[in-house]
């Protein structure tokens, strides 16, 4: 395999803003008379803003209470609170191992792409001082189908000028791993409870070039044996 690009999810891979999403959703949900906890927060991992709202309303028994227009207003309110919380982010919020890996990719001429459902992804990268580290960031506002549909990863490939078979995708959510696998990319999972990842790591600290090279070597040998 000729590796030309790594395509990353954002939350839980580059940085962790899940707690900020939770605080914003928790305050908005409370105003709707719905109490959410960390278990619900985990269930919202990797899905879009509107899909998250639908899950919260379903959980609170209010799935049919609001019109589509009202839902958009609620989701916008959540995002405004989330954006306000983003002001606390800085380079120190980059997860362990990510900055050195991005520098190594740049040195090796391997492109870095972002495939995040977050509409705030460019703003977050700017807060982390990582905009220049990425060659392309897929525009979540143009994505019709959420993960596990592969659309956003395919969009990242197109933007990077590569094909999926030349890429590795990195995710911390099962929906993301499924999307990567459907694409035909190699997948790397971050976290203990993921299935079907080509390589499963317990944390981003383990996401080193040596581990990636090992995955490529293993894949090449497995392919040769199966021929």
TrEMBL record:
Mg(2+) binds at residues 9, 11, 171-172. Its cofactor is Mg(2+). It comes from the Bacteria. Coiled coil: none annotated. The keyword Methyltransferase does not apply. PANTHER family: FRUCTOSE-1-PHOSPHATE PHOSPHATASE, GLYCEROL-1-PHOSPHATE PHOSPHOHYDROLASE 1-RELATED. Belongs to the HAD-like hydrolase superfamily. CbbY/CbbZ/Gph/YieH family. This is Putative beta-phosphoglucomutase YcjU. The gene is ycjU.
């Amino acid at each position: 395999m000729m590796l030309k690009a790594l395509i990353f999810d954002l939350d839980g891979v580059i940085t962790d803003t899940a707690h900020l999403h939770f605080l914003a959703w928790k305050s908005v949900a409370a105003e709707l008379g719905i109490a959410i906890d960390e278990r619900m927060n985990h269930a919202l991992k990797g899905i879009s803003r509107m899909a998250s709202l639908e899950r919260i309303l379903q959980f609170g028994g209010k799935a049919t209470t609001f019109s589509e227009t009202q839902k958009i207003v609620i989701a916008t309110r959540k995002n405004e609170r989330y954006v306000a919380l983003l002001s606390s982010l800085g380079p120190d919020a980059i997860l362990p191992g990510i900055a050195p890996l991005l520098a190594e990719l740049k040195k090796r001429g391997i492109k870095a792409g972002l495939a995040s459902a977050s509409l705030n992804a460019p703003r977050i990268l700017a807060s982390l001082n990582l905009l220049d580290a990425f060659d392309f960031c897929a525009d979540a506002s143009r994505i019709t189908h959420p993960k596990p549909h592969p659309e956003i990863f395919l969009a990242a490939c197109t933007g990077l000028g590569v094909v999926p078979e030349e890429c590795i995708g990195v995710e911390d959510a099962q929906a993301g791993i499924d999307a990567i696998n459907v694409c035909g990319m190699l997948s790397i999972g971050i976290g203990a409870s993921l299935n079907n990842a080509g390589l499963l790591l317990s944390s981003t600290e383990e996401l080193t070039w040596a581990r990636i090279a090992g995955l490529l070597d293993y894949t090449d040998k497995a392919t040769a044996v199966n021929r």
